[in-house]
Amino acid sequence: MPLLGNLDDAHSLRRLAGLATRMVHLAPPPPDGWSDPRTLALMRCLNRRTWPRSWVYGSTSGVYGDCQGAWVHESQPVTPFTPRAYRRVDAEKRLRWHGKGTGVRQGVRASILRIPGIYALDREGGTPRDRLRKGTPVLQAADDVYTNHIHADDLARACWLALWRGRPQRVYHVSDDSQLKMGDYFDVAADIFGLPRPNRVPRDTAKDQLPLMLLSFMSESRRLDNTRMKEELRLRLRYPTVHTGLQAGEPV
Questions:
Q1: Which of 162, 183, 182 is nearest to 171 (CA)?
Q2: Would you say domain 10-247 falls under CATH 3.40.50.720?
Q3: How far is CA 152 from CA 176, 194, 242, in A?
Q4: What DSSP line would sit under 147-206, residue for residue?
Q5: Is residue 226 pLDDT above 90, yes or no?
Q6: Is the pLDDT of residue 104 over 70?
Q7: What whole-number distance in Å separates Cα of residue 94 and Cα of residue 106?
Q8: 0.85 cut: is pTM over it?
Q9: Which range (11-15, 205-209, 210-214) has the least confidence?
Q10: Beta bridge partners of 150
Q11: pLDDT tens-digit profile of 2-22?
Q12: CB 160 within 8 A of CB 224
């Protein structure tokens, strides 16, 4: 039986306290500000009763900022650049600190999943198909950035496994094995969907042609190491690359 609660209305969350033994928390922070009051409201609610034994929080790989294409491991310090990333860092810190607490919080295993771009054929906006049809350009090779991806089905399995296998106060990169720059990702999708490949433009030109949100993603470059996810959560990716994931529902 679902119990509805509004994370922007702390009073509506009271019925949730003491009910769950395990929790997956995927709600995003509010669209503005530098902290995450929604996660804080949920934690304050749970403080009233016994906390779940394990808590999985879906964060973002954006907490690392721009790494200039370098490989990133979970032990690397976060360097958020955007307010969106700062809000996620705030939620991460609160959850990891609470997981180390005493009383009702004692023994809680908080797992932080740092998630890159999520894609799936049945997810609204879950593929580049619409952008390809609009002819949205991408950066030329000299200016392009590495981007990371995970299929929605593999993300769901990672969340479930982290509830049972995640180590206390542990960070995991939930990312596939692809090593693609953003323009190459759009080229792969275009070939699979039978659409024209996007035009490549210099970064200076892109500033006048692309929305600010897309430009912000084009300002950060990194490659996520997913070894910990595979070894500790023992997740076997159903879609190890975007090639396999995008082809899964397309006619051969």
A1: 162
A2: yes
A3: 11, 23, 11
A4: E-EEEHHHHHHHHHHHHHHPPTTEEEE---S--EEHHHHHHHHHHHHT-PPPPEE-HHHH
A5: yes
A6: no
A7: 14
A8: yes
A9: 210-214
A10: 118
A11: 888 899 998 898 888 878 789
A12: no
Taking a C-beta distance cutoff of 8 angstroms, is the pair 32, 47 a contact? no
Torsion of CA 110, 116, 120, 122, to 10 degrees: 70
Give the Cβ contact number of residue 118 at 10 Å.
16
- Tokens 């054929």 correspond to 121
Measured from the Cβ of residue 152, the count of other Cβ atoms closer than 10 Å reads: 16
How are beta strands 138-139 and 200-201 bridged, if at all? parallel
Alpha helices by DSSP H, listed for 23-147, are 37-46, 83-99, 129-134
pLDDT in tens, 142-189: 999 999 999 999 999 999 999 999 999 999 999 999 999 999 999 999
Domain residue extents for the chain: 10-247
Handedness of CA 148, 152, 153, 157 (dihedral sign): positive
